[in-house]
Amino acid sequence: MTAPFLSVVIPAYNEELRLPATLARVRAYLRGLAREHEIVVVDDGSMDATARVARQAGDDVRVLRHEPNRGKGYAVRRGMLAATGARRLITDADLSTPIEELARLEAEIERGFDVAIGSRAVAGALIEVHQPAYREVMGRLFNRLVQVLLLPGINDTQCGFKLFTARAARAAFSVSSLDGFSFDVEALYAARLQGLRIAEVPITWRNDAATRVGLGGGAAAFADLVRIRLRAGRGAYGAALGEPPT
Question: Is the peptide bond before 68 cis (omega within 30 degrees of 0)?
């Protein structure tokens, strides 16, 4: 069987209500592209019918399920490493970033970047519905620390809409270990350390009041940044590619 051109990885926890509409929209968009694709839903120990409704969505949807709940980072990592597409998109079950924004990320991959990440914090981004003020303040503080400690020049690591080449996905996620809020930072840091090029792309985004993605316990999320630096000092992120980056 020929590997698909695109894999769309959707981490899901107790998403039986939102997932059917999300999968219908994603499937319709991908069919319009007329390229081979797969959708990988990773059920992160849901206590509802998430897995069942995903399996009923169509034959282009593959469901991975594990128990107990491990965290979004674990679900994304599992999905990205199990995906078979030449390009691999992470997107959230609430579609806070519309699937149609994929075209913006793909344009950067076509230009030679290995990773293209959706951003709410660069010129051209459109936030249609804002988060509560306290979440925006905490998010800006977190991203500032990320820039100082790990990823200078990247303004928004936490938008859940990211596109990797297959090679970049393997490189970043095969050496990552965080299961919680900071998993995006770790994957991008691992990619950068291995010489992969990351493009930050303005996207349209709207906050979903029912989102299940939190701020990672505040202090725990910030402590993760220190853990990433310590792991890097032990050489944890340096050898996944096995060849010089092109």
Answer: yes
